[in-house]
Amino acid sequence: MINRRTVLGGALAAAGLPLLAPGIPAGGEAHAAEALPPAGPHRAQDPVPPAFTTAMPVPPVLRPLSSTGDVDVYKLTIRRSTAEILPGTATDVLTYDGHFPGPVIQARSGRRVLVRHHNDLDMPVTVHLHGASVPPPYDGNPMDVFAPGTSRTYVYTNRQPHASLWFHDHAHHMEAEHVYRGLTGTYLLTDELEQSLPLPKGQYDVPVTIRDARFDEQGQLAYTMSDRNRTTILANGKPTPYFQVAARKYRFRLLNASNLRLFALGLSDGTPLTQIGSDGGLLERPVAVPALVLSPGERADVVIDFSRHPVGTRLVLTNSGPGRPDQVGKVLRFDVVRKADDPSSIPKVLRTLPPATALPKAAVTRHIALSMDEDGRPDPRGFINGRLYDPDRIDTTVAFGSSEIWNVTNTNRRIAHNFHLHLVQFRVLERGGLPAGPTEAGLKDTVRVAPGETVKLHVTFDAFRGDYVYHCHMLDHSAMGMMATFRVR
């Protein structure tokens, strides 16, 4: 019988991903498309409230300290704070200016943004603007940290087109825990093309950061490397919340900020999501998707039209990705509470990108192998082309202005990975030897790679010279050493 579950299952299979991690029987627990060693002793249930009892907040938009000429200046303090994630409980978190998750910076192509970060923690940090094309001093290299009590100014020239970006800590060996404890924020870059389209705007354009977490009995975030028990789903920092909407179209900027978990998002009534954008901005055309698959670090912009639902409707954003449905199957509920005028629409053509056949000719073809120990050892290591990350080693040298083909292969048998390149947006040409699907036809900076799978990427290095990194963006894996350095010269 064809039902919503089979439709979503088919979408995941088409994406090269199973409903459960390989090797785990139906009904068992799987974590983030990653088959892990057997779980430890039984843990008490997270002290979380029932689903849909907490309202989802919208992260605040920062106002610049100053706006002069062609530059906007911001100041943020990286500091410890507490957040009421669970009702009535003060949870210790790491934050940008006390916000969990972090605030929103709105930027415009061609206009510079300066962000001065002050480190009020007792450990070094760095800030990476994920998906941005920036010179090396402002990229947030994992070793380019600044010490407690000091400040660092990052200059973003915003020479690239519109994109839904995000920023996060990238200090090596600490990046996974720092991001898990809250050091993430949203950076929305727009341009004249995007602004000219009649898409939902203003209060109807909503950033939504989704992730998983685990809490101890005191309501504190519990962090363990490769933890398979992160089964509390947060949306904008609240556990399985509700969000009140008008009966009209909304644009949601979805970010998977998990360390490991893969999401496959759909609507509880079976209506497809309308995807309009990915990591590097708008797709060429809107795509109807029954299950939107996002690995850690990936973004997708979707439009949901609530006008087809009467006031009083409750519609759930579900997750059919790996894990037990009773634990991770619900992300967010939309409550239609009022009617509203809606001048917005979704154009049939959103932007123009060159077809794969018209991309610049590749001068070099490279092969990148992602792997990690999967033999059950307590301290697994991550590798790229068989080597642990060494910040003193240049693994790949590319010519400035050149285009290359990168074939990225996950050589593990059970463990999923994904792949993130700093500095550039790339095009996904093939997945498993087949042409990339429409949801991956736009500009990307992060791409999932299932066990045994190869993705073929077209990359052009024409922005800046210098040293940058590429790595698995399942951050627990990059903290284990699954990272390498490339030099553009």
TrEMBL record:
It comes from the Bacteria. Pfam families: Cu-oxidase_2, Cu-oxidase_3. Residues 78-192, 379-489 form the Plastocyanin-like domain. PROSITE patterns: MULTICOPPER_OXIDASE2, TAT. Keywords: Metal-binding, Oxidoreductase. SUPFAM superfamilies: Cupredoxins (SSF49503). InterPro entries: Cu-oxidase-like_N (IPR011707), Cu-oxidase_C (IPR011706), Cu-oxidase_fam (IPR045087), Cu_oxidase_Cu_BS (IPR002355), Cupredoxin (IPR008972), TAT_signal (IPR006311). It catalyses: 4 Cu(+) + O2 + 4 H(+) = 4 Cu(2+) + 2 H2O. Its EC number is 1.16.3.4. The keyword Phosphoprotein does not apply. GO terms for molecular function: copper ion binding; oxidoreductase activity. Belongs to the multicopper oxidase family. Monomer. This is Multicopper oxidase CueO. It comes from Streptomyces vietnamensis. The lineage of its organism: Bacteria, Bacillati, Actinomycetota, Actinomycetes, Kitasatosporales.
